[in-house]
Amino acid sequence: MAPKALDYESLNENMKKVQYAVRGELYLRASELQKEGKKIIFTNVGNPHALGQKPLTFPRQVVALCQAPFLLDDPNVGLIFPADAIARAKHYLSLTSGGLGAYSDSRGIPGIRKEVAEFIGRRDGYPSDPELIFLTDGASKGVMQILNTIIRGDGDGVLVPVPQYPLYSAAISLFGGSLVPYYLEETANWGLDINDLRHAVFQARSKGITVRAMVIINPGNPTGQCLSEANLREILHFCYQENLALLGDEVYQQNIYQDERPFISARKVLMDMGPPISKEIQLVSFHTVSKGYWGECGQRGGYFEMTNIPAQTVDEIYKVASISLSPNVPAQIFMGLMVNPPKPGDISYEQFIRESKGILESLRRRARIMTDGFNSCRNVVCNFTEGAMYSFPQIRLPPKAIEAAKKAGKVPDVFYCLKLLEATGISTVPGSGFGQKEGVFHLRTTILPSEEDMPAIMASFKKFNDEFMEEHEDHRGYSRM
Amino acid sequence: MAPPVSRDTLNPKVLQCEYAVRGEIVTIAQRLQDELKAKPGSQPFDEILYCNIGNPQSLSQQPITFFREVLALCDHPAILDKSETQGLFSADAIQRAWQILDQIPGRATGAYSHSQGIKGLRDAIAAGIEARDGFPANPNDIFLTDGASPAVHMMMQLLISSEKDGILCPIPQYPLYSASIALHGGSLVPYYLDEATGWGLEISELKKQLEDAKSKGITVRALVVINPGNPTGQVLAEDNQRAIVEFCKQEGLVLLADEVYQENVYVPQKKFHSFKKISRSMGYGEEDICLVSFQSVSKGYYGECGKRGGYMEVTGFSPEVREQIYKVASVNLCSNISGQILASLVMSPPKVGDESYESYSAEKNRILSSLARRAKTLEDAFNSLEGVTCNKAEGAMYLFPRIRLPQKAIKAAEAAKKAPDAFYCQRLLNATGVVVVPGSGFGQVPGTWHFRCTILPQEDKIPAIVSRLTEFHKSFMAEFHD
To answer: How high is the ipTM of this complex?
Structure first.
């Protein structure tokens, strides 16, 4: 009989090539164990609320009121909602074309895009055009849209950092493009070497690939490093010289845990560099409500901002956005609130600041606790988490462990992470899911477990790790090449 | 040096796809709306009426109170502990919110969920499907998505590897399908619905188009059926549905059933039957047919377009294939939680005996009976126009009248470099402020012209629309009569 449409063999090959380890093998195994009753600590995804972080109060009040506008007419609404939340809800409802239940403009509600533009203007000191800002159902959808617009076929390459957040590799696979890796240097704090970049581009071109764009993740995921202004200038010069569009994933811009390198947007540096560069480099910047101190992952809210993209291209991007009609309206309101939070003098300001500071300061402490905790473990070396939400320790697996992994038919870091999971319930993502240098192994965990739980988690990890190393080391000792 | 991302260097599939629902005519309408705002009285009409898009709440349809109560409580669960909340929300809404929150780990509605959607909500949806059809549904077959559209994209992505892969689509069709197929690099294989028989679907036409495609070297992978139809509004008869199921089974095609208008049926002689129900009642199980059913929170009587909620129920697939679908869903992590909750509410609304049942029922019936009235009023209005025939809208939210344009009009359209129906629609917009979508956006038999108009403007606006439209049409026909 003829092969059926949905036989495995007949499926889109590009789809089959896609890998997304964040919810891959480890996660599935962890879910299985959880069903069997084992206590699992999910540190595989940057999902703060799932690990006990509370939502900020003010945005939830505003959106709840927008969901149920009949509350606004109730004389008793003031008993459980503060006046400024009520006012904001009315304001956002007036910006919609019929409340939360109507499709908005396919680019997002104009009034909210204006708020985003104003936020960018305040942040960077340069005006931003709301017409070039598109709200999306999460930053991931925006990334996919832009990559889909750029990639014509496997002859098109996109420079992606290694290690990277595997949305990029997955999207490039799905759209049939070529991933051109550039390696971040672990011993230099996950720094970026322009010579490496040049080399990567040269190699790709010699294989007949047209390198179209470069992705930077700043702060980095999984690596957490914050790019310096000098770094960003170098990168922008490079893109200018090599004629690359720059995709700036800046979703962790609120998550900064050191003071030497505060967040600077790629756009600000670009504008600072002045013409001709500032008028030529095609830049798309991405942001989200899922990270920062908001952590509203479940809302699926994000935006991308385009700089120096030709009008015709913007039209095409709009056209594709219009097929999906509009991004979800509640998340658009979350985005508006994020870029335009309560101000000094507002009724909810004190509470908002207290909640936000509390989260950020705690994240900073946890970044330190985790880094130090990993560094105290045998054969584990961990760069400090300068930003974002993850720790990415290097696990120096002894040859015996690598052997054991091979025997079990598993990639070494997957083997280690599975053992870690079974022993401690800690669910991580093996470094191979993000890319790493050959023969070097890592795992990614989040810094999101609550502060109260952290000491026990790190102790549990240390116990497992040190025993594992003890068991797998031969007594000649192991040294990294 | 040419900039890296310019029109010449974009993905050609992006350049190729089109989506008329928010296309050119809407851009013109928005401009006119801005002009009207800046200079009131500058146009021969007071307001722009967007009849181009199935967006009920933008035209003052009210949301279902019970649903919004539950959603508000789930958005801000902190108030559930306050005694004042009892006075502001109905008791069963509070109860339902608690029930839903208990199904979410940590009651964290701001957390990414399982990539198929929260398990407890899928259970409720599966139960709703079973109650609707009389046949069991498996929560693991359900993938909650940000509206039905992303689910359609996922299936197209799965099925299409190259332009050699064809998808049978009805003509006229909702242009998500043509756009999605183009975007994924496949081939749209058209099958024509028969206007003369109320947009009937003939199996002989399906067979003919399938053979035709095969002879051109195209492997046809799936059949799209939109029931109730968009833009055409027909509700398929059961025996028609059985023949379609049989056809898909025989030809090894995936049946992609767009069932988003399942709650919009306006004629007593027709009922909605899901394709799954039809298949199972024919004795066909998972081994016999691959079937995907799409549902959305955007239509029905709830009209919650802006929430982006929906799901696809996927049956008859091997575990390996299901794994691939899960994998792609996981790259986006999950769909928005509020939309997921709403999808579960739509599939398991208040029941008889619940505190909110009476008011919920009244709201639902009010909306549905109003839609039925508006469908009839506009159908009659279109049929009264010279040279215009309009099939009944048995379901969905649209009318798709056929306009017979005089030669003079067609020539004028050509001179203006527009399709004749686009020319007519733009003239209509300029004269009346009513925005409709030219039939060419949906596909039609060559040489015939249509436009799609929604039945959504509020009832009190309908008489004015009808009279403005009638007046415009008279003068248009007078201007261009041969």
So the answer is: 0.94
